[in-house]
Amino acid sequence: MPEQPRRRERKKAATRQKIADAALRLFLERGYDAVGIRDVAAEADVAVTTLFSHFAAKEALVFEQDQDVERRLTQAVTGRAPHEPLLPALRREIQALVRHCTSDAAAPVRRMVEGSPALREYEESMRLRHAESLATALAADPGLSRSVTACRAIARFVIDAYALALGAADPETAVDEVFRMIEAAWEAA
């Protein structure tokens, strides 16, 4: 019997990926605004209701790895080894995210996001949610002993390091520069 749930989860994940792949292909071919939800559902060969059971909004199709990014950021806090410093773990995650999002392979998607007010707004709301999840993880860590306000501020700074790096001429150097300021703020808290 344990095999059944795993199979069901694999099928759900495969359907979700099929929908996301179809959406991205259509968005890049035709432009984000020119593609409707029905177009994506037809391309993925699923019902519109199936699409919405996997993605809450059209914008979410572009950011299909949103939950994984959020999980990785909070795991940088919760999954680090005892006595492993916090900020280097967070810096590594932000650097990895920046490297991925500034790679040549990601450039067409980045241009699409930057060219769409709806996608930029969705990305900003996603970053705010990531910052809140990260702040919750920071505040829950008994070894950090910082106020909730300090945890929320540092979480916002960490998430903003990603956003600032995307617009920088040298994204990795920008992350390092912002993290030096974050380290000073963390020590001051």
UniProtKB/TrEMBL annotation:
<keyword id="KW-0805">Transcription regulation</keyword>
<dbReference type="InterPro" id="IPR009057">
    <property type="entry name" value="Homeodomain-like_sf"/>
</dbReference>
<keyword id="KW-0238">DNA-binding</keyword>
<keyword id="KW-0804">Transcription</keyword>
<protein>
    <submittedName>
        <fullName>TetR family transcriptional regulator</fullName>
    </submittedName>
</protein>
<dbReference type="InterPro" id="IPR050109">
    <property type="entry name" value="HTH-type_TetR-like_transc_reg"/>
</dbReference>
<dbReference type="InterPro" id="IPR001647">
    <property type="entry name" value="HTH_TetR"/>
</dbReference>
<dbReference type="Pfam" id="PF00440">
    <property type="entry name" value="TetR_N"/>
</dbReference>
<feature type="domain" description="HTH tetR-type">
    <location>
        <begin position="13"/>
        <end position="73"/>
    </location>
</feature>
<dbReference type="GO" id="GO:0003700">
    <property type="term" value="F:DNA-binding transcription factor activity"/>
</dbReference>
<dbReference type="GO" id="GO:0000976">
    <property type="term" value="F:transcription cis-regulatory region binding"/>
</dbReference>
<feature type="DNA-binding region" description="H-T-H motif">
    <location>
        <begin position="36"/>
        <end position="55"/>
    </location>
</feature>
